[in-house]
Amino acid sequence: MKIIKSLSELEEWVSHSYQRGLRIGLVPTMGALHEGHLSLVRRARKENDLVAVSIFVNPTQFNNPTDLETYPRDEERDFRLLAPEGTDMVFAPSVSEIYPSGAVREKIFDLGAAAEVMEGPRRPGHFQGVAQIVSRLFELIRPHNAYFGEKDFQQIAVIRNMVASEKMDVNIIACPIRRADDGLALSSRNALLTPEQRAVAPSIYRHLQQGVDYSHSHGVSDTRAYVEELINAEPEMKVEYFEIVDGRTLQPIEEWGETDYSVGCITVYCGKVRLIDNIAFRLPAER
After folding, report:
1. pLDDT along the chain (287 residues), means of 10
2. What pTM does this model have?
3. What is d(CA 115, CA 117) in angstroms, rounded to the nearest whole number?
4. Nearest partner of 278 among 120, 155, 161, judged by Cα
5. Which of 200, 215, 231, 246 could form a disulfide with 259 if both were Cys (CB 3.0 to 4.6 A apart)?
6. Residues 6+ away with beta carbon under 8 Å from 134
């Protein structure tokens, strides 16, 4: 496994790969890797000639300086986890390498209506920062396929819009959420939970599942209220938002009949740790 930290060395690796006619699969990450990330690497390994993983905590997507400061980092551990998975190259640059002029958003991307709901108004500039780093990685590594976990359901939709608006030649591949045995969606932020919080956090997914059952005999607004009430009753848990949206456009729905693909997207504070999750309420026949 080759570890690259400079743009010059990366350019050499990419050029050599293209000269050999090899397909590159990219797994973009911010490090603090877990089984969810490794499942993306395994998927990429099956579908590409070479697997590249990026590790970069991108400052431009954090609108909360404390969140950036406390984001878990352990690069050496990440390297140890990636090596046995058949990773060919890890790109782990410094901030100055990626943003030599400083972490300034010089371009505003057309991210569509999917960026204007849920996380959009609550984290101003977040998706522009995501688009900035993902587009930069795509330009540098030129992957044929890029892999993202569906825990970040809205982010995937936004990245797809960015790829379409920028006319980038890369396939965006969404992979199922990986969960701990107790149902908690795997996340780097889980490491910030206290033992007591970690014990209660799986209730998010449990109550989402209850919401799906409840939805079979209740409307959208009643289902939203039901799930929020269940989660807010748990110790240290507070729902920031819970939206049931069209799974393609990410626009909120008010009636089940508005779409054949509805997804519940939720953000919950467990103590001070912000956790996100989602669940399908209705799935189209072809999916």
Report:
1. 97 98 97 96 98 94 82 91 97 92 76 97 94 96 98 98 97 97 96 96 98 98 98 98 97 98 98 97 84
2. 0.94
3. 6
4. 155
5. 246
6. 28, 146, 159, 162
Q: Rounded CA gap, 20 and 233, in Å?
A: 58
What are 48's two structure tokens? 């590409």
**CA-CA distance, 147 to 25, in Å (whole number)?**
8
- For this structure, is 37 an active site residue? yes
Cβ atoms of 34 and 187 within 8 Å: the answer is yes
Residues 6+ apart with CB under 8 A from 268: 204, 231, 237, 238, 239, 240, 274, 275, 276, 277
Which amino acid belongs to residue 94?
S
The pLDDT of residue 104: 61
Of 16, 34, 37, 218, which residue is the catalytic one? 37
CB atoms closer than 10 angstroms to residue 271 = 16
Separation of alpha carbons 56 and 41, rounded Å = 16
Q: How far is CA 153 from the centre of its chain?
A: 7
Q: Where are the alpha helices (DSSP H) in 20-84?
A: 35-47, 65-70, 75-82
Could you tell me which residues come within 8 angstroms of residue 25 by beta carbon, excluding any fewer than 6 positions away? 44, 45, 47, 48, 50, 51, 52, 143, 144, 145, 146, 147
Q: 30: Cβ–Cβ under 8 A, 6 or more apart, which residues?
A: 55, 56, 57, 58, 71, 188
Element (H, E) at 156: helix 153-166
